[in-house]
Amino acid sequence: MNALISIVMPVFNAGDFIEQTFKSLLNQSFRDFELIVVDDGSTDESINIANKFATKDNRIKLLKNTGKGAATARNLGIREASGKFISFVDADDLYKKEMFSSMYSKAVSTNADITVCGYRKFDNSSGKTLWEFRPLGKFLIHERIKSRDHLSDLFSVVPPSPWGKLIKRDLINKNNILFQELSSCNDFAFTYTAISKARVISFCPEVLLYYRANTGKNISSNRGSKAINILEAIKRLKDNMEKLGNFKEMRQTFLARSKQSLQFELSNCSEEEKKAFYSYARSNLDNNLARDLESAMIREIGI
Question: Which of 14, 59, 198, 232 is 20 to 30 A from residue 150's alpha carbon, by CA?
C-alpha cells in the first residue's frame, strides 16, 4: 500500500546535521509516509548515515543523483513518489514532532491542494531566531482560501522556498510541474506554478519547521554572482502559466512577486554584478516582460 505522504529530501554533504534531521523526521507523530532520500554525490558521511537509518526503517528509500543539483534531485524524488501528498525537506533542517500530523489533518479537513505551515530561520552557531514566516493575517480570516478570490495577490501567500508545504501529488503531475535546473532560484517557478493551479490553499500558522542558517553551505554567501538565475526563473514561471492558461488573470500577482524577488537578488549584487544583470535582462527578456520589470531593476541599480 502506498504511503499517504512522500517526503523528498535531496542530500549533499550534510553529514554534520543529517542525523538530527533524520531523527526529527522519523520521530514524527504521523507515521504513514515514505522518505525519499536523493544523494547528490556526497563525499562526506551523509550516505553512510542515511544507510544506517535505512536499514532500521523501511520507510526510507535511497536514490542516487550524483552531482546534478538539488533541482534534479527533487525532480527524481517526484518521479519516485507514490503518496497522495508530497512534501520537500532539506537535509540540515529540523521539524516539530507534530508537523506532518498537523498539516495532513488540515489538508484533509479543508480539501486543500496545498497546505502551508509557519517556519523559523535560526542561526546554526548561536541558535538565535533570525526571522519567522507566518501567513499574512488576511489569509487566515477563513480556515482556507479559494485561489479565485485572490487572483491579484495570490503569490504573496508564501515565499518561493519548497519546504513548509504539503502539496497534492496529482496537482504536480497533472500540470507537469518540475524544479528548474538552476544553481539558485530553482524553486521559484515550481512553487508559484503550483500555487497558480491550486484551487484551495489552507494554513497551519504555527511554526512547525526550523530552517538552519549559517552552516557554511548556504548559497546566499555568493548570491550576487548567481543573480541572473532569477531572470530565468521569472521567464520559466511566465511560460508555465501561459501554457496552463492562467497568466492573464494572474498577471498582477506574477509581476508583484517577480519584482519583489528581483529586488532581493539585486540587493546581494555588487555594482558590477548589477550592471551585468541589467544588460542580461535587456538582452534575454522579451520586450513586454522587460518593460514590466524595469522599474524594479532600475530602483536597485540606480540607472
Answer: 232
